[in-house]
Records
---
Amino acid sequence: MKKLQYIIKSFWVDKRENLRITLFSAVIAFVGLFFIANIKDIKSNIVIFNQADDVYFFSLYKADVKEKELKSKMNKKIGKVHSVPFVSVGVNKEYAECYIYDDYIMKHLNYQFASGREIRTDNEVIITSELGKKYKVGNTFLLSGIDEKGNSVEKEKKVCGILENDIIYYPHGAGAINYDMLVVHAGKDLYYKNGVITLDNSYIGSYVMGLGTYMIEPKEEFRFQQIEQQLEDIGELYSGKELIETNLETLQYDTNQKKVFVIAGVSLGLSVFLGSIYISIMRRKKEFGVMMLSGATFISSIVLMRMNGLISTCIGTILGEIGAIYLIKNENLTGELHISFVLQVFFAITILYVLCCAVIQWIWNRNDIIDLITKE
Amino acid sequence: MIIELKNAKKEYIDGKNKSITPLNGVNLSVEKGEYVAIIGPSGAGKSTLLNIIGCIDSLTSGEYSLDGKNIEFYTKNQQADIRNQYIGYILQNNGLISYRNVYDNVAIPLMFNKKVKKKEYKEKIEAALLSVGMQDYRNRRVNELSGGEKQRIAIARALVNNPDIILADEPTGALDIKNKVSIVELLFQLKSKGKTLLMVTHDMEIANEFKIRYSFTNEGVLSQVGGTIC
Ligand SMILES: Nc1ncnc2c1ncn2[C@@H]1O[C@H](COP(=O)(O)OP(=O)(O)OP(=O)(O)O)[C@@H](O)[C@H]1O
Ligand SMILES: [Mg+2]
């Protein structure tokens, strides 16, 4: 209890350093979480597709927010919202080249086979003519990708059909492995199954870190034409193709910028941490020495002296993360926010603090009691 | 023999590769309950000697035994425990943490004493402050205190764990006569409790109060002076 009191009182002793440490750990946590969660600012949020008589609303992200927006702007009923996140980092060559279309879509899109037939079981695939140079009908190969949780997934697939020509080339989103039958199409037509939809953006899903895809069930009570009339009211409305293009641009731009931000952020954070800890350690040198003189071990002195900074770091990190989470949840940003990301950022910053302490302690504040106690 | 130094030598190499030997074959033995004054010119090695005895410095050669056991045979942690429970060190220039309050300064040695229960902390700190007549100063910040008051707090801190040996490095250094007398009286009151005291002083008047006096005569050589004077 007494040691705890001592640590708490130390906050006042190190108030400036602690304030700085809190502030900067908050900044690093904020930026760090954005980086790890791969947050992007999505340019467009609503895409409207038209299939037969049905109208579909899709939002790449935060469908619920968009739904509200739509409701308020259009004053119409809108169905329930589903979320379908895609987070795929990469897929193998086979994966990118194969099609897992089912019977329905094959007919619907009127694909022609060079050989083979449509898919009948879950472990069958249709491949492109390009891939057909390598595999024959009846061959099996491994599809590997990364699922929405970031785990790698592998599935063995048997070739059941090879396409005559690759009319449209849209490889599958990684989601295909999880959601089984996924279809993409560049045109206005769209097919979905099992309540899961991919937009054209599954293309992005395959190559670039994922985007969230959200779906509003196609139980709309109004028609596309009606919506079209009110397009101007909705504001940002893009076609699927435009959407991909704009977002791909954003993504490429983001990755480069992010690297700069992260390097700048980490070096800034590191220098503030080092600076603040250095000032505090040097100013409290004598206190450290008196502890050692009074029979404290090196480690227990360090714990007593540095704990308040560690707590400041933790508080700052938590505040920064809360800020990041709040922003991600409430603003028009996309990204995957797993609890593991939050923990990773938390521990990374805490470890950064501990390392900084260790380095400074090692260089400037070794175990020489006389040197310590004679410093004023 | 509570403290025994045999042919103790401490050597420093200064910046110009010149060697300084503050302790050059020092022999010293102190019995339990003895009060010993150490005098000598500035830079002679008095603080160095107390640092060695206080287990915060080690000898270049020679032997230092505490309670009959060579200090080299104590582990680092055991030495830390000795500093904590067995030795109370009143540092030259008091060694207080100026930005903390009196209570916290006195509490520091208690925090590392495994033998004292946390419940007893308050009681022990109050007792130590009372023994130096500073009980009303517990919440004052150290840098608001006068030199004499600081010195008393330094003594309270050295006494809080009830150590057997007290090392005092010029505890009356910058004080006026009145304060000097009261500090010396304070330290002499501990004699009845069977404590052992080693005190460094420049003040011959104070030194003369001690039966046993050692003086650094030549460079780094310690010898007993006027042992018979009462
Ligand atoms: N860490 C060190 N490195 C080099 N020389 C040192 C070191 N510590 C002390 N000395 C030297 O050892 C000598 C003795 O120092 P010490 O502090 O013991 O003197 P002192 O007798 O206590 O003097 P004072 O009465 O002024 O306090 C001095 O010449 C000092 O310069
Ligand atoms: Mg000295």
---
Amino acid sequence: MHHLEVDGLTATYDGKILVLDGVSIQVGKGEIVSVIGPSGSGKSTLLRVIMGLLKPKAGHVKLDGDEVDYGNKKSVKALRDRFSIVFQQFNLFQNMDALRNVTIAPVKIRKRDAQKVEKEAIELLGKVGLGDKLHSYPDELSGGQQQRVAIARALALRPEILLLDEVTSALDPELVNEVLDAIRILAKDGMTMMIVSHEMGFVREISTEVIMMDEGKVIEVGSAEQIFDNPQTSRCQDFVGKILRH
Amino acid sequence: MNYTFQWGEAFIEVPYLLGGAWITLHLSFIGFWSGATIGLFGALGKTYGGPVTVKLINWYVIFFTNTPGLVTAFFIFFGLPEFGILLSPYHTILLNIALNSGAYMTEIMRGGFVSVHKTELEAAETMGFTLLQQLRYVIVPHIAKVLFAPLSNWYIWMILGTAMAAIFGVEELTGRVFNRAAETFRSIELYTIAAGMYVAITILASSILVVIGRWAFRVKVKVF
Ligand SMILES: Nc1ncnc2c1ncn2[C@@H]1O[C@H](COP(=O)(O)OP(=O)(O)OP(=O)(O)O)[C@@H](O)[C@H]1O
Ligand SMILES: [Mg+2]
């Protein structure tokens, strides 16, 4: 039994074009699964469907063997209690400072003890290198700093699985590493993650498994070495070839 | 210049004029909040309403934002009695101010609704916020912040706009100057004093708004 099991997931925005077309993925506890693929291949959509932002048309998602019912609010809520997602565009709450961005959901939504949450939030922000920015607002932070707040915010919810959707692609090159470093620390702590990324060097270094997607389908699954050095499908060879030549 | 200033005669009227200034404040304050209420519903209707609602609101907005306030005031002043509705000049003007600023505030507030970032709400949703919690913690604070500066400016503009009430015999600041100027012929002195009072009122109101804006909404409004 896998920690997270996605099976035959199919989704569409307009009812016609299948943006996801029978995607199956397994993630074990403590694993880091990266999803790569060309723009428009459905990587973000996959994460959105898993999080319940877009209802799947067919297929299912299982958590520790229990199937998620996306038509049922309680079931979706239970799922969201166990997952956190960080988006490409940080999506911080603009009207709250860094600390409150991190504490609001645990305190107001999960009803945890405010003082304990705050202590934990300060630690988390310290861990991502923002111990001195607790009271800065998003518009006073750089993109990299905002993204690190977003990661701290996601972690404050104590997720069992963290989904990261191109968390560095909206950043200036010199800010990318500070965010990747924050993720490296999580990896060392054994966090289970599903990562969508265009940072191939990073993907290669950190992933337990790499999944290559195209046109809504999983094209190839394998270790980082297989996908990058010895891809089995021609589509994957093309894609990896193009990227590595850049 | 052949005019001999006679300030003494004008200064006697200061308490009387201050009373008028008080009515000016009243009129603008009540007018503002009535307009804000209309604007809130107008903006909600335009953002979330059906096509008929949107069309009706558009007609209302277009009418009031494209006619001089003075004209709509006359329109209400002479129009309503034809329908058997008799209002005092004060209430006629108040109604006009409310409708007029309601139309402007519909547009201003709609901008606030539109500017709520969908992605922020999505993030909130995945963190387990219900719709009501999103409204309370994300949407309302955002709109309040975005709208604070334009609504503050609008309020200041409204204070000055209430001078129009004088034409209809309302005894606010300008109306009282009308009255006394006709009796004493000290027009320039009286208008100078009134101008000073308007400046004082708007500076005071702006300063209060700036302080509220900084403390409550982190908005850096500049006045001067
Ligand atoms: N909200 C939406 N409404 C309609 N179509 C959408 C929407 N979002 C994405 N799509 C379409 O779905 C397809 C997959 O998009 P998705 O964002 O999942 O791709 P992606 O792999 O994340 O690409 P990228 O690398 O550019 O982020 C694309 O063809 C896109 O145009
Ligand atoms: Mg994407």
